[in-house]
Specification:
This protein is an alpha+beta fold. The chain has 13 helices and seven strands. The strands form two sheets. A five-stranded antiparallel beta sheet has the order 1-2-3-6-7. A two-stranded antiparallel ribbon has the order 4-5.
């Protein structure tokens, strides 16, 4: 059976079990162009990597993108890939015990919620992550993908689903992630309680907000499928807030056929870091880097910045 036939059969099974999929603009682009985006490294400036979006002819660039802390890093995977929720996406097939098998449904969930099909030639910096056509579609995918993890694991409690969503096997990291989500939920519930129960003291309000946050995290994930409530909205908001706090919303450089389009913004953001400014200026003034990016974006050679 061909890869396309395998894919069609898998999608038919998903639709049969989970209901029809939402048709996304990214799917339409993918069908029109077998490679709607590409990833690469800037040959002339080591450390700089990019995702080039073929439709809008825009490249997003980051420096030392895999560094775990902001020191020495410009931009990040979430910003470059339009993926503020740090959602993973597996290729259609994976190797298991030396055999090529279809990837698990949960690992492919982002594809049905706005992501581009995974490019098998993605460089290592971006190979794990889903790439979305814009930030809004990346944000909208967070809760649906979380629910796919819940379905695939027989609807555990919400907190346990979050630990799976993190994508790390380290128990301490998983617990820390759930606690970070809990802290964000407490903030949201506290703001809500201040409106619904204005007579509560600060201590009482904090206690009530904590109870509500713990109640959500200990609830069966199935409850979030059945109802669209403040809880679902708060959970989505909490995930995005935590990912942003992990520096997943930090800005890198944008490049189009007219040149770098956000240089002034980036210079202001990194004005206090002389080392980063040097890297930014070195890239911005590199004719070789521009020539490479122009080629990737298939720009005309006339009137380029």
């Amino acid at each position: 059976m061909s890869e396309r036939a395998w894919r069609d059969a898998e999608l038919f099974y998903r639709d049969l079990i989970f209901g029809p999929r939402r048709y996304s603009r990214s799917r339409e682009w993918a069908e029109a162009d077998s490679e709607p985006y590409s990833t690469g490294s800037v040959t002339a400036k080591p450390g700089w990597t990019f995702i080039a979006y073929r439709g809008p002819r825009e490249a997003r660039l980051a420096f030392n993108v895999l560094r775990p802390t902001p020191e020495g890093r410009i931009g990040n995977v979430g910003w470059v890939a339009n993926n503020p929720g740090s959602i993973d996406l597996s290729p259609p097939f994976v190797m298991r015990e030396g055999k090529r098998v279809a990837a698990p449904i949960a690992s492919r969930a982002a594809l049905d919620h706005g992501a581009f099909e995974k490019n098998p030639t993605d460089i290592r910096e971006y190979f794990r992550f889903a790439v979305f056509p814009n930030r809004e579609s990346g944000e909208r995918a967070v809760l649906p993908v979380l629910l796919v993890f819940a379905r695939a694991n027989n609807y555990p409690r919400v907190g346990e689903t979050l630990r799976m969503y993190l994508g790390l096997s380290d128990p301490a990291a998983r617990e820390r992630y759930e606690n970070e989500i809990r802290a964000q939920l407490v903030k949201s519930y506290s703001a809500r309680v201040s409106l619904t129960d204005p007579g509560l003291s600060d201590t009482q309000r904090a206690q009530r907000a904590t109870e509500l946050a713990n109640g959500l995290l200990n609830r069966k994930s199935l409850d979030l499928v059945r109802f669209v409530t403040y809880d679902s909205q708060y959970l989505e908001r909490a995930i995005l807030a935590v990912e942003s706090a992990r520096d997943m919303a930090r800005v890198g450089l944008r490049y189009t056929c007219d040149g770098f389009s956000n240089l002034d913004e980036v210079r202001r953001i990194y004005a206090a870091d002389a080392g980063k400014l040097r890297e930014i200026e070195a890239l911005a003034t590199s004719a070789a880097a521009k020539a490479q990016l122009n080629g990737v974006l298939t720009c005309s050679t006339v009137g380029l910045a």
